[in-house]
Write a sequence for this structure.
């Protein structure tokens, strides 16, 4: 329900739905040249999306995904559903990709809150033992 509200507020629900083909990081290097730098130790992977707009013109977009995301496992040539802006066809939105980042953010937040709670508990225990 919240995701639909977000999409309506952003206007994504009015964008054109399309199937985008996934290309590899090598395709990004060919497209972006020296501007593309990928770290060999990174847990993230850059991929290229290719789709055709309403006029049949090829559009290209780059997306980054973490190794914990289902998008990391996508193979070259596979397709995903996106929505693109008809006024600016090179701008796209993918609900599933957004959700994968939100899950990652939620996990990081949970770890942070649990860690913070543990340290607060530890400090309170130390204060209690010292009788301060």
């Amino acid at each position: 329900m919240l995701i639909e509200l977000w999409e309506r507020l952003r206007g994504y629900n009015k964008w054109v739905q399309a199937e985008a083909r996934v290309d590899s990081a090598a395709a990004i290097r060919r497209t972006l040249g020296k501007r593309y730098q990928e770290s060999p130790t990174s847990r993230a992977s850059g991929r290229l999306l290719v789709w055709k707009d309403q006029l049949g013109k090829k559009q290209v977009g780059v997306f980054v995904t973490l190794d914990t995301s289902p998008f990391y496992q996508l193979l070259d040539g596979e397709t995903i559903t996106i929505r693109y802006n008809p006024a600016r066809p090179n701008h796209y939105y993918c609900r599933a990709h957004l959700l994968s980042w939100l899950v990652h953010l939620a996990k990081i937040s949970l770890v942070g809150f649990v860690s913070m709670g543990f340290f607060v508990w530890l400090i309170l225990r130390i204060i209690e033992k010292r009788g301060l």
